[in-house]
Amino acid sequence: MTMKNDLYLRAARGETTERTPVWLMRQAGRILPEYRALRARLSGFKELVETPELAAEVTIQPIDALDVDAAIIFSDILVVPDAMGLPYEMVEARGPLFPNVIKSAADVDKLRIADPAEHLGYVLEALRITKRALNGRVPLIGFVGAPWTILAYMVEGHGSKTFSKARGMLYREPALAHRLLEKITATTIAYLQAQVAAGAQVVQVFDSWAGILPPAHYAEFSTRYIAQICTALAPLAPVTVFAKGAWWAVADFAALPCRTIGLDWNQDPAAVRLLAGDKTLQGNLDPCALYGSREQVKAATQAMLRQFAGGPHIANLGHGVYPDTDPDNVRVFVDTVKEWRG
User: Fold this and answer.
1) Where is this site: Transition state stabilizer (predicted)?
2) Which of 143, 201, 217, 228 is 20 to 30 A from 71 (CA-CA)?
């Protein structure tokens, strides 16, 4: 299939591009009125995630509405524990909730290493439908949560400011934590390989709760498993690693076979560039910058772009776009990137 717009794909491979490509984490979702209209007709978030035709429709909405340079499949990182035999619920205005959590070796033993075709087939079908519908307009991104972030939810049972139960396991029962991480990683690798086979051209690993771990624990309980994922996937597709809040991990990521390193809004692109060498960097506008005036959004975007000079860059936010963001301001961000020739 001939790509009509392959800017993002080329940048993700580390190639030179005529302009900086741009997309947004969480671009498919609540900022768009067409998403809210579709969502209002359904029983809940999980119905949308688990209905391939609807997930594909939502994936494509921001391509039409915002004219971004890549599509990211509409799904959730928690489909992985669900596929492993630990189901979750998505509670309105509260977030994810696991009726059962991992507390013991027996709980870990009950988990399966998921078969992507059997247990995650709805995501793979959504990828196939989306790829056909895009017809080469832009590349398609697949994604997963990093094993540590998945463990955090499986042990804690819900979102948390501290994830103290999950972090406590790393101190009290490190061997059990590793057993759980090994199962999650095996599932994750198989799942990402299946995503690529179904049409994903780049894959991203989100470590949303990276920053709550001390550096030594992050190296032991997260980076080593992200490394396994990158090693398995790098021959198939470019891999992006985004570890929110884990600024100390950049040097370790630079040594991994990931192609792109995502930055949150507190990281200095110039400093990361010195450590990351020729890797592509992605990010890192503060999502709150999009609450400003049109002029302020444009100025903040230009300032961000100047900081990434000197190497391949994919423009994005430093985390997902917030749901109450004005779509017109998102368009200003996207248009400013497209006009930039710094």
Assistant:
1) 76
2) 228
The class of domain 7-339 in CATH terms is alpha beta
What ranges in 85-223 are assigned the alpha helix state H?
A: 105-110, 116-119, 121-134, 147-156, 164-172, 174-198, 215-218
**Distance in angstroms (rounded) separating the CA atoms of residues 220 and 160:** 22
What is this structure's pTM? 0.97
Domain range list for the chain:
7-339
Per the prediction, the chain carries an average pLDDT of 97
The predicted model gives 9-36 an average pLDDT of 96
Verify whether residue 30 is a known catalytic residue.
yes
Q: What gap in Å lies between CA 266 and CA 286, rounded to an integer?
A: 8
Statement: residue 341 has pLDDT above 90: no
Catalytic pick from 8, 88, 153, 191? 153
172 is catalytic: no
39 is catalytic: yes
**Predicted local confidence at residue 342, as pLDDT:** 75
Torsion-angle region of residue 66: left (phi > 0), alpha (psi -120 to 50) or beta? alpha
